[in-house]
Specification:
Elements: H1 4-19, E1 25-30, E2 41-46, E3 49-56, E4 60-67, H2 68-78, E5 83-88, H3 92-130, E6 135-139, H4 161-170, H5 172-188, H6 214-233, E7 242-243, H7 254-276, H8 283-302, E8 307-308, E9 317-318, H9 320-323, H10 327-347, H11 355-377, E10 381-382, E11 394-398, H12 406-431, H13 440-448, H14 461-471, E12 474-480, H15 483-494, H16 497-504, H17 533-558, H18 561-577
Antiparallel strand pairs: 1-2, 1-5, 2-3, 3-4, 5-12, 6-11, 7-8, 9-10
Amino acid sequence: MTVRLLWWLLWLPLTALTEERQSQLGYLYIVAAEGNASGGHVAVQFDDAVYHFQHHDGGLIRLHRDSVRDFEYRYRFLENRDIHASWLTVAPDAFARLRERFESRYQIQRLQFGLAGLLAQEAVWLTAMAGGQPVPLDLAGAGLFFDALAGADRPPPVREPVLARLARNLGTAVLDARIRAVETALRQLRPVAWEAARFVSDDPDFVPPAPYAFSERYQDLLTLRLALQALRQARPLRPGVLQTPIAAAFRLTPGVRTALCGFHAALEERIARLVRASQPDSGAALAILLARLIAVSRSCDSGYLAFLDRFEPDAQALAPERVNPDPAFWRPLLQRERAHLVSVLERLTDGGVDGVRYAGLEVAANRYHELSRALVSGTPIRLFGIGALPDRPLRAPLVVTMAVPSSQLRHRLEEVRRAHRHWRSSLRQLYRYDLLSRNCVTEALRTLGVKVRMARGDFIPFRSALAVARHYPVRERRLLLSYRHGRLRQRYHEAPAWRVYLQEFNTLTSTLYRPNGEDSAFLFFTDDVFWSRPLYGGINIGVDLALAGAGLMTLPFDRGSLLQRSVRGLFSGLVELGFGNIRKGSYLYLPPEPPLLSSP
């Protein structure tokens, strides 16, 4: 079946809202730079959402959707690229149809590629089981209470009073019965059949009906069992999960404290409903609610905000001095994050606390606490990586055994392998990347309904806006300057041009850029000059050749980091010799600013 009809029914309310205000449709060209989309990139903006196609490993091209803020922050700020925006004039009904087309395609691709990932996971599991090897578990939420499966059945040495009281109220007999029911379901679980013929299609709207995969259902049931055990055993949270800072910014006013305590009762009610339900995939939600109940209870008791750590386990941590050693860089950011946290707390007294508001409070508290902790202690700081949910996973190997003949297990394995091959072949046919005929530009234009004329170079990012202008009236064009270009323009208004140029044209004396390990090595900026670009590029090549020699000497010590940066710099220097530029210099972190794309 197709999912377009279902998505259209879901989209109708959004369409009505869109027509009530002036719609904003923009075509965005992002200039070339080192790294991803080095030849340039394009995107289509609908109000507060940006859609763009990207090339993925495996030779496929996929549609992505980002918020305006996240998209602009990544490309204009961190990647330091100019954005050329063309604002288009379309009728409200045409705008709604176009946005529905992009959103529908995005949602369908999510299902299609999600199914490919599920088939791959199922094949990995059945292969391991057939060989008597452990399968890789990834149990969302279970890591809040457990660090390993071993010993999960043993009661903890110290019980969590909040969960102990809740377990008594729900009834230990009820919890024991639910745990036994889940364990019975786990024992009775068997690999499901996969009809490979269903996974062959050339219809871009087609998503084949898939069974509840064994690997998915097993992990769901195991997560549910662990969450129920955490409640039954009154298990405390793992170390590091609960943050309990004692600082003025986290002190609760009487009104906020009352609001949070009221949320405590709502959490208990939701937990009770999940415990009584028979949904096998409710384990992660139950674990998160239990953890939040502990955090809210601690906040009510202490008068200070306690909250769950929302950062992903693999979130990158950077030393503050590596990002910027100047304290003046960090002070305004710290003040802004504190003000935001205080504002979020104050709003809780107006209308109470619900799940959405509490999630926003968690994010604000995590950002301020992480920043203040790192700046005070000098330890590495996690600037990115706050998860959509505080669902810390438990990742562990497990040997799964069952009373199934090995021949039946091998048969199911062959079925899922065939289904996976067929579906991957279908996806390659639908979304195979081609540098000229199917890239980020051609797919964006075709989804917009614009004819791609190869002879005119419509497939080239910097020429594609002309193709859009042939099809849609352009009411306004704007150049959104990159972070460095914007700051340079500001500096030129504040100081003599010669002084600004001499300070900022190179990486040694620049106040706007600090070299980092992500960029190629270079000395002179060439993105804001033209006639002198080959000269600067030649000097940059000389610098890269010298650094390449040094990189050979340091190869055993830096794992080739300097050598790789210098080799990449040689390529960028060759581009500069031909009056081109892809080297801008990027940033590990910058304070976010309001996106200009939100207000043409």
